[in-house]
Amino acid sequence: MTWTAPSVPRPRPGSLTADEATLLPGVLDWHRTTLLRKCAGLTGEQLAERSTPPSNLSLLGLVRHMAKVERIWFRERFAGQPLEKLYSTPEQKDADFEALDPARAEEDYACLLEECRLADAAAAGASLDDTFTYDGEVFSLRFVYVHMIGEYARHNGHADLLRERVDGETGA
């Protein structure tokens, strides 16, 4: 039986006037769900379908990329966890987009879900004002949320176009 990305319910909208500590994680969850909804119902082969040459973009590549970015910003940088790199190597920086295997799509999808869960755990109980230093610069958890929301928003725009190219589906 061929695996297809599952249908994902949209999270319940929270208060649009909530404090930042409530609002930012909620907006991030909404964007995470948007990417997953763009993948819903597609097979690994469809998820790996690239846009237009020379672009290396695909929905599966975006799933893998966002798993990598979740790990980097929340777990490696904010929480300071020493972790192996996910997908990319010094020899192949864009392996998250380029080294795709449609047969591993279910595993890659599950990896994104797990990285989101672990990212949430890394930030649980922390203040948005908590900081870390990376590459000589001081960052706050607030910045991480804003950066991740922007990262998802940009790639969800790509996902809209990729999904429409794969099967004509729009919206979600």
Features:
globular; 172 residues; mainly alpha; two-stranded antiparallel sheet; 2 strands; single chain; 6 helices
Give a count of the beta strands, DSSP E runs of length 2 or more: 2
How many DSSP H or I helices?
6
Radius of gyration: 16 Å
Helix-residue proportion: 40-55%
Percent of residues in beta strands? under 5%
Strand order of the largest sheet: 1-2
Please describe the biggest sheet, giving its number of strands, its sense, and whether it closes into a barrel: 2 strands, antiparallel
Structure description:
The chain is mostly helical. The protein is built from six helices and two strands, in the order H-H-H-H-H-E-E-H. It has helices spanning 20-39, 44-47, 59-78, 95-98, 105-123, 141-167, and strands spanning 131-134, 137-140. It has a two-stranded antiparallel ribbon. Helix 1 (20-39) packs parallel to helix 6 (141-167) and helix 3 packs parallel to helix 5. The model has no long low-confidence stretch (mean pLDDT 95).
